[in-house]
């Protein structure tokens, strides 16, 4: 497991568009059709990463909670499925069903979407406002495998709570740390 820190997409960057296959149902999903009028959360995750596994249950809980407030969550896996078969679209679908993902789980086979977002690791979180401008990019919280900290999602949730309240999101944001995206 190679630990990688994410690159920080500049705040204000407009979310790069995409059209990817949803592994849950095989349908193409584009950002414009899924975006929220409140905020859209783009998460780069995968199945095999211990950092993702650590936060998975809380991530599902947080997504379900905020989706009730009209926020959209979209998960994307950009890993090379040939060399990492646990991250294949079939395994992604099974993972999403097993853990009851309340969001689309998209496969970025060409890895172009990850590159456009400057994603470097899993998990990696991006929050875009109603105009799809980046207001948050960083980690879920400070829990990592082995550090014994409770998984809370507090850093992502603080950004989402500010958006819902109509307040500015703090520019003090911590980069995600996790497994490197498995590039082809």
Q: Strand percentage, roughly? A: 15-25%
| Rg from Cα | 15 Å
Structural class: alpha+beta
Range of helix content: 25-40%
Order of SSEs, N→C? EEEHEHEHEHEEEHE
The total count of helices amounts to 5
Biggest sheet record = 7 strands, mixed
Question: How far apart, in Å, are the first and last alpha carbons?
Answer: 17 Å
Low-confidence stretches: none
* Strand element count: 10
Dominant shape: globular
Mean pLDDT: 95
Strand ordering within the main sheet: 3-2-6-5-4-8-9
What does this structure look like?
The chain is of the alpha+beta class. 27% of the residues lie in helices and 23% in strands. It has 5 helices and 10 strands. It has helices spanning 31-34, 50-67, 89-98, 112-117, 154-164, and strands at 3-5, 19-22, 28-30, 39-44, 72-77, 104-107, 121-122, 124-129, 134-138, 177-180. The strands form 2 sheets. Strands 3-2-6-5-4-8-9 form a 7-stranded mixed β-sheet. It has a 3-stranded antiparallel β-sheet with strand order 1-10-7, covered by helices on one side. A hairpin with a 4-residue loop joins strand 8 and strand 9. It starts with a strand and ends with a strand. The model has no long low-confidence stretch (mean pLDDT 95).
Compile the SSE list and pairings.
Elements: E1 3-5, E2 19-22, E3 28-30, H1 31-34, E4 39-44, H2 50-67, E5 72-77, H3 89-98, E6 104-107, H4 112-117, E7 121-122, E8 124-129, E9 134-138, H5 154-164, E10 177-180
Parallel strand pairs: 4-5, 5-6
Antiparallel strand pairs: 1-10, 2-3, 2-6, 4-8, 7-10, 8-9
């Amino acid at each position: 497991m190679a630990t990688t820190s994410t690159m920080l997409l500049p705040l204000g960057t407009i979310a790069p568009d995409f059209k990817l296959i949803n592994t849950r149902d095989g349908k193409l999903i584009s950002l414009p059709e899924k975006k929220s009028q409140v905020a859209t959360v783009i998460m780069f995750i995968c199945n095999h990463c211990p950092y993702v596994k650590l936060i998975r249950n809380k991530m599902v809980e947080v997504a379900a909670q905020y989706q009730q407030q009209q926020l959209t969550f979209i998960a994307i896996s950009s890993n090379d499925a040939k060399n990492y078969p646990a991250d294949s679209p079939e395994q992604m679908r099974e993972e999403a069903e097993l853990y009851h993902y309340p969001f689309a789980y998209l496969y970025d086979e060409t890895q172009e979407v990850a590159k456009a977002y400057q994603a470097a690791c899993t998990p990696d979180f991006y929050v875009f406002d109603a105009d799809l401008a980046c207001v948050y990019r960083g980690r879920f919280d400070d829990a990592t495998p082995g550090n014994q900290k409770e998984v809370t999602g507090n850093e992502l949730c603080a950004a989402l709570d500010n958006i819902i309240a109509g307040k500015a999101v703090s520019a003090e944001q911590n980069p995600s740390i996790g497994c490197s995206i498995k590039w082809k």
